[in-house]
Amino acid sequence: MKSKISYWFLLGLMIWLIVVFLRKKGIFIPVISNHLTDFITVPMYAYLIEYLMNNVLKYQWKPDIKFILSSILYLSLLFEVICPMLSGKFTGDILDVAAYLLGGLLYYFHKRILMYK
User: Fold this and answer.
1) What spatial distance separates the first Cα and last Cα of the chain, rounded to whole Å?
2) Cα–Cα distance between 76 and 83 in angstroms, integer?
3) pTM of the model as a whole
4) Residues 69-117: tens digit of each pLDDT
5) ∠ CA 90-27-5, rounded to 5°
6) Cα–Cα distance between 87 and 90 in angstroms, integer?
């Protein structure tokens, strides 16, 4: 893995920061605030862990399908089941789970295609 940070990761980070800024200003764009951020969560999470493992800890590691699926399960349980039970600020939404799943699978297959080029 290259040591410089991916432009895709930086784009996802910018999107997330813009959404947080807009929310603080009282501007709420439903599809972007509700589902785009969830769609990019698993790819950003997987990329960040891969980057840290390879470039900071010096392992040679790539996320496999088990890692992606367990990440989807973990994030879904945490943010769509546990957090809504603990706080009224969170809501459990099956569409968020679908966004985690779609984002994670697209990331995984995108990485697989890049490996074979």
Assistant:
1) 14
2) 10
3) 0.86
4) 999 999 999 999 999 999 998 889 999 999 999 999 999 999 888 777 6
5) 75
6) 6
